[in-house]
Design a protein that fits this description.
With 413 residues, this protein is mainly β. It contains 3 helices and 35 strands. The chain has helices at residues 2-31, 56-62, 390-412, and strands spanning 34-37, 43-47, 51-54, 74-77, 80-82, 90-95, 99-102, 105-107, 113-121, 124-127, 130-132, 136-142, 148-150, 162-167, 170-172, 184-189, 192-194, 206-212, 215-217, 229-234, 237-239, 251-256, 259-261, 273-279, 282-284, 296-299, 304-306, 316-324, 327-329, 338-347, 350-352, 355-359, 362-366, 372-374, 377-380. It has a 14-stranded parallel β-sheet, with helices on one face. The protein has a 14-stranded parallel β-sheet with strand order 4-7-10-13-15-17-19-21-23-25-27-29-31-34, covered by helices on one side. It has a 3-stranded parallel β-sheet with strand order 5-8-11, with no helix packed on it.
């Protein structure tokens, strides 16, 4: 009886095990993916085949839905692709149809390739993907227009996390950090780079060279090895970014007719904001404080520097290295070595209505010629109690007076 039960139970276990194995095999075959095993034989991840598309016809064949119009774009989604160290995980070339790549995980691309690589396309939308540990780029949009790269994670690339060139592209809401070169490198015209995190990269946080009529706004570009944000070109707007704790400058601008406004460029190892060289630019409403060198460094002419806070920097609050016909007005540059410093090659600049309190050497120093300096609020030397701001001293003084009056009233009573 016992033996009969043993045989019955054993047989039932074998049948169940066989059914489970058969189900696993059927499931794997249904997925159509190659399984990658760890050292213990555990399944670590699955991989779909790499995707290579050239032209609209191949794009239509590879998509899961859509007809390529703006309202119903082709869709490639929910893929997990290991490029196995050669080529790109997803490559699309020479398309004009609308398409979306979304919710894909791509990694381990080959040299000079990318997790997602798009060449000569328009109307692309790359959203919500993970592109990590690729060689070179996480996501590459090359010579392409009217496209969107949004909400992606692009980490640990051998080169840039996200790179793009072309016009009328939008790069927004991505996390492009911990890459060997730049987090985001985007060049061209009429592009928007906004709301991204580009930090802890071994080059620049955000780099935009040869960029015109573009907007770089609301990004966090901190703790990078070089500059937080580097822009060259004309008619660009750099606004509302946090570019702090970088090893070089917070924001470095090279070009003309640009606007740098409302940024936080503090605690950088070099300067907060640099214009070098730069002409006809506006730098306004920024916080460039607590930098190891200067708050704002300017080399150029016909620029306006107004309404900024450039305080608590180790060297100068605002320094004009060279140039003429610049206007520096309405700024606060306090608690620096020098509040505002003009080098010998500066001439015909106007320095007015600035608040220059408690700088260590001088509130204002002029080595140039024919500069106009008027109506600045200048208090020399350090505050009487180191580490205390004037407003705090005022509060302490008022409290002390109130205490004395109260004590006298008590004695009289």
């Amino acid at each position: 009886m016992i033996r009969q039960r043993f045989v019955t139970v054993t047989g039932l276990a074998i049948i169940l095990a066989a059914a489970a194995i058969g189900s696993m095999i059927m499931t794997h075959e249904t997925k159509g993916k190659n399984e990658f095993l760890g050292e213990t034989g555990d399944i670590l991840y699955a991989s779909d085949p790499k995707i290579l598309i050239d032209g609209n016809t191949e794009l239509a064949a590879a998509s899961s839905s859509g007809d390529g119009t703006a309202g119903t774009p082709y869709i490639i989604q929910n893929m997990v692709i290991n490029a196995s160290g050669t080529g790109s995980a997803i490559s699309i070339y020479n398309t004009t149809a609308h398409f979306i790549i979304r919710n894909c995980t791509v990694f381990n691309s080959g040299s000079s390739n990318a997790g997602i690589r798009l060449f000569y396309v328009v109307n692309a939308n790359v959203s919500g993907n993970i592109a990590s540990s690729n060689n070179w780029y996480g996501i590459l949009l090359y010579s392409s227009n009217n496209s969107v790269i949004s909400g992606n994670t692009a980490l640990y690339s051998i080169y840039d996390g996200i790179a793009c060139s072309g016009s009328n592209n939008t790069v927004s809401g991505n996390n492009a950090s911990h890459n060997e070169y730049s987090g985001i490198d985007c060049s061209g015209s009429n592009n928007t780079v906004s709301g991204n995190t580009a930090s802890y990269n071994n080059d620049y946080g955000i780099r935009s060279l040869g960029s015109n009529n573009s907007v770089i706004s609301g990004n966090t570009a901190s703790n990078n090895t070089y500059d937080g944000i580097l822009v060259s070109g004309k008619n660009n707007t750099v606004s509302g970014n946090n570019a702090s704790n970088n090893n070089w400058a917070g924001i470095f601008l090279d070009g003309s007719n640009n606007t740098v406004s409302g940024n936080n460029a503090s605690y950088n190892i070099q300067h907060g904001i640099i214009l070098n060289p730069g002409n006809n630019n506006t730098v306004s409403g920024n916080n460039a404080s607590y930098n190891v060198q200067d708050g704002i460094y300017l080399n150029g002419s016909n620029n306006t520097v107004s309404g900024n806070n450039a305080s608590h920097n180790t060297a100068m609050g605002i320094v004009l290295h060279s140039g003429s016909n610049n206007t520096v007005s309405g700024n606060t540059a306090s608690y620096n070595e020098y509040g505002i410093f003009l080098r010998s090659s500066c001439s015909f600049n106007t320095i007015s209505y600035n608040v220059l309190h408690y700088n260590i050497e001088q509130c204002f120093h002029d080595e140039g010629t024919s500069n106009v300096v008027n109506n600045n609020d200048c208090l020399e030397n350090s505050p009487p109690i180191p580490g205390y701001e004037p407003w705090l001293l005022s509060i302490v003084a008022i409290a002390a007076i109130a205490a004395i009056i109260a004590t006298r009233k008590a004695r009289r009573a």
